[in-house]
Amino acid sequence: MAADLAHSWLTFSAPVAAARAARRPLVALESTIIAHGMPYPENVRTAREVEALIRELGAEPATIAVMDGRIRIGLSDDELERLGRSDGVHKVSRRDLPAVLASGETGATTVAGTMICAALAGIEVFVTGGIGGVHRGASETFDISADLQELAKTSVAVVCAGAKSILDIGLTLEYLETHGVPVLSCEQDNFAAFYTRDSGFRADYRLDDAHEQARFIRTKWDLGLAGGVVLSTPVPEAAAMPSEEIDAITRQALADAATQGISGKAVTPFLLARIKALTGGRSLATNIALVKHNAEVGARLALALSRADQGPPA
Ligand code: PSU
Ligand code: MN
Description:
binds pseudouridine-5'-monophosphate, eleven-stranded mixed β-sheet, alpha/beta, binds manganese (II) ion, hydrolase activity, acting on glycosyl bonds
């Protein structure tokens, strides 16, 4: 009953509805990256290219946002444009979802917000850039992204290029461990650090093959162990940024946030915007490359999960 009621807030695009009817694999995509993560028009162009990549690999992309009082699962080109062009699009995490839906305003969903909507829509795989986490200095500020709590309880696999070093990556991984969220890595042993390949911290399990990843995830959920799984994959070597450069820029961005007294949900967008400005355009190219790579990994995982009819050995 409650699930049916929640479901009545969803609107599926025609391609996503067709894929659902045909039981084809779906890949959810977030919209904060479009509205708040990249400048126009690169944001809209990248969103379309990411969708095309997923389709080429045989899965159906479902970009998620809040528009006109509905949770939209799958957006048309015009709707992507509207989201990417306009100012005043809300950043929608768990806390914000009722407000933006009820007011009929436009909202871009974060990792947490997108996970909630994807789960309602029955989508198991979600591709993003980087997850939120425990911020540096969190022992003073208590600033821990709602993404981590969502990973603790909502059963969606989140494919990412790790987390940005604006965060305390060690504490982020500790938090995930406490909440029983497995952190998988493919292509390398360590958790990725978004602009750079290596965070210096090991992921929990390295699983390079999509079928192994699917088997792990299906087993978790078969056991009734609700909650998400993080699948980290590093930015392609050729697109990675030099780590000394990004470290210095990150320190500068954090210092600017402190000086300006930025707090609450404004912290992450502020830091992302500062990093973008301080790197000139170069971080954008890295960002685009990693999201596309994540999309390929996510599409392969969605295909493998749709075939994974595993269960325990006989
Ligand atoms: N980290 C990034 N890029 C992003 C975000 C985080 O490298 O675009 C966005 C995601 O939507 C993420 C959100 O879910 O910021 C986290 O915000 P907060 O730290 O306020 O929870
Ligand atoms: Mn925060």
